[in-house]
Structure formats: C-alpha cells, structure tokens
Amino acid sequence: MKIVLLGAPGSGKGTVAEKLEKDFNLKHLSAGELLREEIKKDTTIGRDIKEIIEKGNLVPNQFVVEIIKLEVKGKDNYILDGFPRSLKQAEAIDDLGIDLVVYLEVPEEVVVERLSGRRVCETGEHGYHIKYVPPRKEGICNQDGTKLIRRKDDNPEVVKERFRVYYNTTAPLVKYYKEKGILKTVDGTPNPEKVYEAVKKVVEENK
Domain-by-domain residue ranges, the chain? Predict the structure, then answer.
C-alpha cells in the first residue's frame, strides 16, 4: 500500500506515520528527514537546502522529487510524510500509483503552539513536546541521553511563515487528491492517540 500523509507543519504527520509503519509494516519516508540527512552530509545541495529551510521556504521541486524517487524505487509499501508539497510535485509522482491520501486538518493557532514547544534530540531521531510529550528529565532525551534542542524552523515567527507557505502551495493538493477520489480527511486537533485511531480506521477501510 502506498500512502501520502498531507497536513500543515505540526499537524502530527510524523507521529501518525511512525505508528502506521509498525501496525501495517510500511516503510516511513519523511521528506524532511531525507533533506536533513543531505544537510548533515554538508554537500553543496545540503547547504542550499539548509538556507532555504531556515527561512521557512519550501525546497525546490527538483531536489525533493529526485531524492524521494530514489528512495521509493522498487518499493510497494510505504508512507510519504511531508511530500508532495505542491501540485508540481504531486504530478511528478503520479506514476507511483498512490493508493490513499490522508489529510490531517489542523488550524494555524494549534500548529504554532505545537511547533514552538517541539524539541528534538541532537541526533534528530527522537521528538518531544514541552507540554504534550515531555521527556522524563527536562532537556534530555529519554532514548539516547543527548540534549534536546528546538529546530530553527520551529521558532514561532518561522512557524507562521511555514503555515502561510503551506496554504499557498500545499493546500491545493487537498482538492487535487479529492478529485482523484483517494483523499480522506481526519481532524488532527485531538490528542495524538485519538488522531491515530481515526487514521488507522481509514487505512483499514481502504486496504
């Protein structure tokens, strides 16, 4: 099964994707993580991507489409999290044959609260929230003991810009996939457990 998770930054796509990965044996492919890997490698493209992301803008199509297509080559069971983010990207992956698109609908004020309180460990592998998912020891990751940090693109002003960019470029995807008959909308405002139960039900009904 090939699933796309749509939603504004902070709508809970990553949390939902991690659980779907375990429950349905799907490969979780996060566009953001793949781009951050490129940044970590400090390649020329990685440095360009870093500059774009830190300003709250979207990474150009050619970078993302190329990276994603390489990752999904030969795979039939995966979740695309945070991709596509524009109509051009959606059209560029039409040939992949996506089965289901789940749209997590969340208002801006909820997104700002969620992201400004979000923290990740220095390895970037484990996520927390100072209000909703606090670590056992303040400022320290439960899993690997590294320091928790706030990503630059989670600062409130950058979050608002990311939300604006999202609505200008990504929201039209809701209409695009609705017209294809594969879009299912889920309210992303309740607690993570309730949101996931709703998504899980949708996936089971569309298997």
Answer: 2-106+156-205
- Residue 125 pLDDT exceeds 80: no
Per the annotation, the verdict on 47 as an active-site residue is no
Query: Which member of 2, 50, 114, 118 is catalytic?
Result: 118
The one catalytic residue in 2, 36, 50, 85 is 85
Q: Would you place residue 148 in the very low, low, confident or very high pLDDT band (cuts 50, 70, 90)?
A: very high
Q: What 3-state DSSP class applies to 7? A: strand
- Among candidate residues 50, 119, 162, 184, the one labeled active-site is 162
Q: From residue 100, give the alpha-carbon distance in Å to each of 3, 36, 165, 205.
A: 5, 26, 24, 11
CATH of 2-106+156-205, one of 3.20.20.30, 3.40.50.300, 3.40.50.360, 2.30.29.30: 3.40.50.300
For 10: left if phi > 0, alpha if psi spans -120 to 50, otherwise beta; the answer is left
pLDDT averaged over every residue in the chain: 89
Active-site residue, 164 included: no
Q: pTM for the complete prediction?
A: 0.77
Q: Is 118 a catalytic residue?
A: yes
Query: How many residues are present in the chain?
Result: 207
Q: Which of 2, 13, 50, 114 does the annotation list as catalytic?
A: 13
Determine whether 88 is an active site residue.
no
Task: Identify the band that residue 191 occupies on the pLDDT scale cut at 50, 70 and 90.
Answer: confident
Please confirm, yes or no, whether 85 is among the known catalytic residues: yes
